[in-house]
């Protein structure tokens, strides 16, 4: 797909002599004579075997410390080119392996090929592989890349900076590639070295205008396109004036590193490239403030009919996607030198609180609580057209040529405020569109029921998951784009059950394993420039691994990560008090965004043991015992189970209050909470007697500290353990209210509305699949399947669940006093079906039909 896409770039603070020799200082070599290098007669089966080198421009080295035309940007942006000749494209073969620090866009003969690398860290730095054979042409060919270096800028959440999730060392670009004939004979060695040409970009500047709340996603753009070399990535461009690239250090695969000369341990990409759709129209648009757009604009937006704006024209539009999306805005123009564009991105519009009509979900919270989080905000969100588009923005100054603007990185928005000021020359606008991008999930699972409101939660939940899945799982696409272990525990399971694609889940598991601190805990978010540790999030990482193994059967990955699991458990053991329960935990001890708890920290976490942290540790012991048992270590599993059982008895005695009929948050109370009692049930503190007692007050008693959307993931499991899962519809009020307010995604939590898209709030989708439909793996990889549906007041429900063997399709309905279930299970997978009345039967896969009676 051909696009006039723009650029990226980076820089190096120093230069190293390499095996290819010391290149001449910046600006010297203007000739096209190849630099002497070893001849390659055999192509290595693996890339980066003492061959390609990382390259940059020499002005960043000691060779030329004061080069002219320095980049004006906060980041450093560079263009790279390498020309070569192909005699007969039908007989030529070319595969290349590409990476960069920090980001690249890659082209072959002017055609956009891909962008990367995927997010890793410096010691686990991903590279991408592209088959360029279909893009070769007879005669002159060119490989080209724009590279963006973020290493020289500090990350400051309150004022943006680089993306916190992009870990970096220094600017660099690397490519391994050998043009061969069909027989394998080498025709041209295209690896990065001093034969590549480089130029410093002067068009890209980066800014943080309108930063009203901390953001972790990095600077937005200010592009001045007159400084972009026209056709720089095409074969017709003359790069004879560009100096040769400066060689930094030899590229190395991570597995081959011994005494490294390079900071990067290169690894093949673990996930597919993101989906990038063709440009599509905005479904709706209007003049800011609510007015109708002129007829000429309607024709442009709906039918792509170009319009010409006179010099001095000003236009202020609002483009409305109708729901939140993640996409590249796509503008095509001609002429109009001296004009300017501003694109402002928002999840929702803003109005003063007294006119917005915005509601708080769940238990009503005071506006003072919101003010504590929105110190700079004086308005609430709305979808009323009278509202304003406020927030981060991109700025663009077109060159006067025919060109297309897309930012280098995708944006998250429902609304785009488009402000255009035309300069002294007419401006022809040829397209105002957008291109969707996200992780290339294909949602295969389905769900429908007798309650249309549940079906709407299903749809919004799946859209929330998609908007929070790109190169990593994300807590939110608009503010942070960071991968947190607590959020990932839910989003990963959503992906496994609804798409069957486990690749992003597996990458996330390794990401957190790589993040481990010397004391044994994983970081709570990773990749991340800023270290943040939440002990409970390391526990959630163990749950994610357990769920991954159960869904995929991938014992190899589980065995590889098991030492890290033990490191987390050992850390908790070292924090134990005299009774063996974890106590006085360091780091940030948030467990949930409870509005009664400062920064989400349960009372007593910093001074002693708490019910929640004790329960989470005991549950982690149980889950680890299950994992090691699946890995063929029964003795180790038995020891972990015994440890959990011993601590379970201690925890029950420590936190149970006979007078309250509930579990205290800390020994002796007086605090009680929804989340603490949910964890006590899930971790098995509560026996049958205690469960029946606490259900008199749980979860709705007003004295229980309320949880957010997140706690309900455990809360619903607790209801199921107490035999009260059929109460589910009573507790879905916050999700129904979200949908009824017009939200297309679920918010982060219900005491303030920072993020309107947070995948941890989409977990009712799992309840619909795992408990209403009732489909769960009974053994790793769905080697055995359990189907145990719950009615939840419905008269019928049907849908499907993804497994490694294909879809499990099931449905049930109530007819009079009968409960009828039908299912189709792929292959001959042993399946136990248990109906609500207790009727149970084993099947050998295939078509299943079972009938019971209503209780």
Automatic annotation (TrEMBL):
Q: Where is the Alpha-L-rhamnosidase C-terminal domain?
A: 774-842
InterPro entries, per the entry: 6-hairpin_glycosidase_sf, 6hp_glycosidase-like_sf, Bac_rhamnosid6H, Bac_rhamnosid_C, Galactose-bd-like_sf
A Pfam family cross-referenced in the UniProt record is: Bac_rhamnosid_C
Q: Where is the Alpha-L-rhamnosidase six-hairpin glycosidase domain?
A: 445-663
What's the superkingdom here? Bacteria
Q: Which SUPFAM superfamilies match?
A: Galactose-binding domain-like, Six-hairpin glycosidases
BP GO annotations: carbohydrate metabolic process
Per its UniProt record, what PANTHER family does this chain match? B, PUTATIVE (AFU_ORTHOLOGUE AFUA_7G05040)-RELATED, C, PUTATIVE (AFU_ORTHOLOGUE AFUA_3G02880)-RELATED
- Protein name in the entry: Alpha-L-rhamnosidase
Which organism's genome codes for this protein?
A: Oleiharenicola lentus
């Amino acid at each position: 797909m051909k696009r006039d896409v723009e650029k990226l770039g980076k820089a190096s603070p120093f230069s190293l002599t390499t095996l290819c020799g010391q290149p001449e200082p910046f600006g010297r070599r203007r000739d096209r004579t190849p630099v002497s290098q070893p001849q390659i007669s055999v192509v290595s089966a693996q890339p980066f075997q003492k061959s390609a080198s990382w390259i940059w421009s020499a002005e960043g080295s000691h060779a030329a410390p004061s080069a002219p035309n320095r980049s004006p940007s906060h980041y450093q942006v560079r263009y790279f080119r390498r020309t070569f000749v192909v005699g007969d494209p039908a007989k030529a073969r070319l595969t290349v392996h590409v990476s960069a620090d920090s980001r690249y866009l890659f082209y072959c003969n002017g055609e956009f090929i891909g962008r990367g690398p995927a997010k890793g860290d410096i010691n686990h730095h991903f590279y991408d592989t592209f088959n360029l054979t279909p893009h070769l042409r007879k005669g002159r060919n060119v490989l080209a890349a724009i590279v963006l270096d973020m290493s020289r800028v500090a990350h400051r959440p309150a004022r943006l900076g680089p993306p916190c999730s992009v870990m970096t060392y220094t600017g660099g670009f690397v490519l391994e590639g050998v043009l061969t004939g069909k027989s394998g004979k080498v025709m041209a060695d295209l690896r990065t070295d001093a034969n590549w040409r480089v130029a410093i970009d002067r068009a890209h500047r980066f800014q943080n205008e309108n930063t009203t709340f901390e953001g972790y996603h990095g600077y937005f753009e200010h592009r001045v396109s007159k400084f972009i070399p026209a056709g720089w990535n095409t074969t017709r461009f003359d790069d004879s004036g560009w100096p040769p690239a400066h060689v930094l250090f030899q590229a190395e695969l991570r597995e081959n590193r011994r005494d490294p000369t390079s900071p990067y341990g290169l690894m093949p990409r673990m996930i597919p490239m993101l989906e990038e759709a063709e440009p599509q129209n905005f479904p709706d648009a209007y003049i800011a403030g609510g007015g109708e757009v002129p007829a000429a604009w309607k024709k442009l937006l709906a039918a792509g009919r170009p319009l010409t704006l006179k010099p001095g024209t000003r236009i202020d539009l609002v483009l409305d996607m109708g729901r939140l999306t993640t996409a590249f805005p796509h503008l095509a123009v001609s002429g109009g030198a001296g004009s300017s564009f501003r694109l402002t991105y928002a999840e929702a519009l803003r109005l003063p609180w007294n006119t917005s009509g915005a509601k708080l979900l769940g238990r009503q919270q005071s506006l003072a609580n919101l003010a504590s989080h929105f110190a700079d905000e004086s308005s609430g969100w709305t979808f009323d057209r009278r509202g304003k588009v406020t927030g981060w923005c991109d700025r663009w100054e077109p060159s006067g040529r025919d060109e297309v603007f897309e930012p280098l990185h995708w944006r998250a928005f429902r609304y785009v405020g488009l402000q255009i000021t035309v300069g002294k020359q007419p401006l022809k606008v040829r397209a105002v569109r957008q291109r969707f991008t996200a992780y290339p999930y294909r949602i295969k699972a389905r769900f429908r029921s007798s309650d249309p409101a549940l079906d709407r939660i299903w749809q919004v939940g799946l859209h929330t998951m998609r908007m929070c899945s790109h190169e990593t799982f994300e807590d939110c696409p608009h503010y942070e784009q960071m991968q947190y272990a607590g959020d990932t525990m839910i989003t990963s399971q959503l992906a496994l059950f609804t798409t069957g694609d486990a690749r992003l889940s597996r990458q996330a598991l390794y990401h957190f394993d790589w993040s481990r601190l010397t004391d044994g805990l994983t970081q709570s978010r990773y990749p991340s420039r800023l270290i943040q540790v939440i002990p409970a999030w390391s526990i959630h990482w163990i749950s994610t691994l357990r769920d991954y193994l159960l869904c995929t059967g991938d014992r190899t990955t589980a065995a590889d990560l098991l030492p890290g699991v033990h490191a987390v458990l050992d850390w908790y053991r070292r924090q134990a008090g005299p009774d063996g329960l974890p106590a006085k935990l360091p780091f940030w001890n948030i467990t949930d965004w409870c509005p009664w708890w400062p920064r989400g920290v349960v009372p007593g976490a910093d001074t002693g043991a708490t019910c929640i942290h004790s329960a989470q540790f005991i549950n982690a012991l149980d889950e680890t015992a299950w994992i090691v048992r699946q890995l063929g270590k029964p003795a180790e599993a038995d020891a972990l189970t015994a440890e959990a059982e011993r601590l379970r008895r201690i925890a029950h005695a420590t936190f149970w209050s006979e007078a309250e009929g509930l579990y205290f948050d800390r020994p002796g109370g007086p605090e009680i909470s929804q989340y603490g009692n949910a964890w006590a049930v899930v971790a098995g503190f509560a026996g049958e007697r205690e469960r029946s007692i606490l259900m008199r007050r749980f979860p709705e008693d007003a004295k229980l500290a309320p949880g957010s959307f997140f706690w309900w993931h455990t809360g619903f499991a607790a209801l199921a353990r107490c035999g009260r899962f059929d109460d589910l519809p009573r507790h879905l009020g916050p999700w129904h209210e979200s949908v009824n307010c017009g939200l297309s995604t679920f918010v982060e939590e219900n005491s303030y509305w920072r993020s309107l898209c947070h995948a941890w709030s989409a977990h009712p989708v799992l309840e619909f699949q795992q408990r209403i439909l009732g489909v769960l793996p009974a053994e790793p990889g769905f080697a055995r399947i359990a189907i145990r549906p719950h009615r939840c007041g419905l008269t019928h429900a049907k849908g499907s669940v993804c497994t490694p063997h294909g879809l499990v399709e099931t449905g049930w309905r109530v007819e009079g006093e009968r409960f009828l279930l039908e299912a189709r299970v792929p292959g001959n997978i042993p399946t136990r079906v248990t109906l609500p009345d207790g009727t149970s039967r084993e099947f050998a896969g295939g078509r299943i039909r079972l009938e019971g009676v209503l209780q």
